[in-house]
Amino acid sequence: MAKGKVTFNQDICKGCGLCVSVCPTNILAMDEKAINRKGYHPATVVEPENCIGCANCAMMCPDLVITVERM
Amino acid sequence: MAVVFQKTRGLTDVETHYCPGCTHGIIHRLVGEVLEELGVLDEAIGVAPVGCSVLAYNYFNCDMSEAAHGRAPAVATGIKRLLPENVVFTYQGDGDLASIGTAEIVHAAHRSENITTIFVNNAIYGMTGGQMAPTTMIGQRTTTSPYGRDAATTGMPIKISEMLAQVPGATFVERVAVNTPGNVRKAKKAIKRAFELQLAGKGFGIIEVLSTCPTNWGLDPVKALRWLEDNLMVYYPLGNFRDYQEVENA
């Protein structure tokens, strides 16, 4: 059961990958199959069930892409 | 489910022009969050510099002004003296504050103007294409130091926080970094403290934020964070250099 939930506003993601690099549970990845309207591969959550809601990803996102919820 | 992190009201919905992975976005967010949490968004007036953050007035959700290169502390001085009830801050890069604007920042601190300065140090001129700044590291390659910065001809990188900590009028001086989630949280605390001191009328505060420039450093955003830690944080140690103390000033 997930303790947290992350939501990505993928339209404004610049694909920098800082969120992926700081996730302690390694549940984030760049979506190599998608290209957003800015022309980047946006970040996405691949194992939502393992999110602990720590908000590390949101702390490091320079573009305010991420919303974090916690149980 | 409770929302524990969402976009602050302190920033507008305008998407920034910053390069992918540039930590300006993080620092903008911290300032916006602090202004929102202190409930002073409606009273805040920011002064934007010349440099990458020249367009900061599009992103902060408060009143903003623009200043000539390096002159933000002078403009902020005028605004604060005319409107002492407002919260006034400058947001300046190292090419702006540590080079052409050195006189303005030293004298604003010396006069202990009751303003807050956010000083973003990424050791390079970003907007103009990656030229050497006074803060550039020894050996760092830039477009104007293609063989690496040489101390014999350009001196050592300037340590603004250590320098301003010697100025009697500087009330609050702290250096922070935004390379890890933990350091981002610490940076926010320092920014908040400086704004609280301004609200209490205690005088000049500056927060030096070690930041990255992936594009001009020639590194991807994640490697740029490592480079910051391995190089900038070694020469520019983090920490508080000066803080207001009731006893000292009683």
Written account of the structure:
The complex is a heterodimer of chains A (71) and B (250). Chain A is α+β, with helices and mostly antiparallel strands. Chain A has a single domain (4-70), classed as Alpha-Beta Plaits, CATH 3.30.70. Chain A contains 2 helices and 4 strands. In chain A, the strands form 2 sheets. In chain A, strands 1-4 form a two-stranded antiparallel ribbon. A two-stranded antiparallel sheet of chain A has the order 2-3. The longest helix of chain A has 5 residues, at 18-22. Chain B contains 10 helices and 8 strands. In chain B, helix 1 (24-37) crosses helix 7 and helix 3 (94-100) packs across helix 4. With 250 residues, chain B is an alpha/beta fold. The A-B interface holds A 4-5, 12, 14-18, 21-22, 40, 53-56, 58-64, 66-71 and B 1-8, 11, 15-16, 18-26, 29, 180-181, 184-185, 214, 220-222, 225.
Identify the notable features of this structure and list them briefly:
heterodimer; A: 71 residues; alpha+beta; Alpha-Beta Plaits; two-stranded antiparallel ribbon; 23% strand; B: 250 residues; alpha/beta; Rossmann fold; 10 helices; globular
Elements of chain B, N to C (H/E): EHEEHEHHEHHEHEHHEH
C-alpha termini separation of chain A = 10 Å
Provide the CATH architecture of chain A. 2-Layer Sandwich
How many domain modules of chain A?
1
Question: What's the level 1 CATH class of chain B?
Answer: Alpha Beta
According to CATH, what is the class of chain A? Alpha Beta
Identify the biggest protein-protein contact and residues per side. Answer: A-B, 28 and 30 residues
Tell me the radius of gyration of chain B: 17 Å
Strand fraction band of chain A?
A: 15-25%
SSE pattern of chain A, N- to C-terminal: EHEEHE
Described by the principal axes of the CA atoms, the overall outline of chain B is globular
